[in-house]
Sequence to fold (209 residues):
Amino acid sequence: MNSVINRFLKKNESIVATEPLERDSRHEFLDFLISLGSRTSQLRQYRAQVEEFTFSRQELVADLQLLKMYLELEGYLLYKDPRYIGTSDKLRAMIQIEFPVIAQKEVFAPFYTNGKNRELALTRNFISYTLQQIKNNEQSKDHANRWLRFLSLKLQHQTELDLVSQINTIRELRENYHEMSNELVDAFGSEFAAELQGSCYRSFKEYYQ
Fold:
């Protein structure tokens, strides 16, 4: 998936501080994944990390944090756990049944699509994340709010688009992104824009690794 992000952008840490939340369905989801494995020391460590983890109050960031933890657990179950027998497709299909609300989150959309639909889902998630991060910066939040309003329809996930519409939407979003980048440069200078967008790119890319 990183290759898709690289193709879109061509140019480690999130620039947004997280705030604590009460235990929620994300914790229950991770507990379920852990229960699929055997009682190894590594899974006990995962469980301890889940118990202590507090998700961001920003929903998109919290969902990306959940995604990263899911990918770590999925990798462990598929390739290291002595008990779990299955594939990523079977595990993700199980999630759709057991945790449909989680599976329907936009950050998980690339797992359930292929080809240009997957690229479009990643592109939308990347732009949404970037705009959210820019919005959190006091200097640039007005620009982000305006772009969020302008792109609101394009950033909504649509699975019924045909191939031509998918390609055109990706192209339009790429053009919108570069237009937004140029606007940030004009308003705040190239150094500010490069640092802000570079941080967004690196942190977003890490979520999908």
Remarks:
- Residues 78 and 87 are 7 Å apart (CA to CA).
- Residues 163-188 form the longest helix (26 residues).
- The radius of gyration is 18 Å.
- DSSP finds ten helices and no strands in the chain.
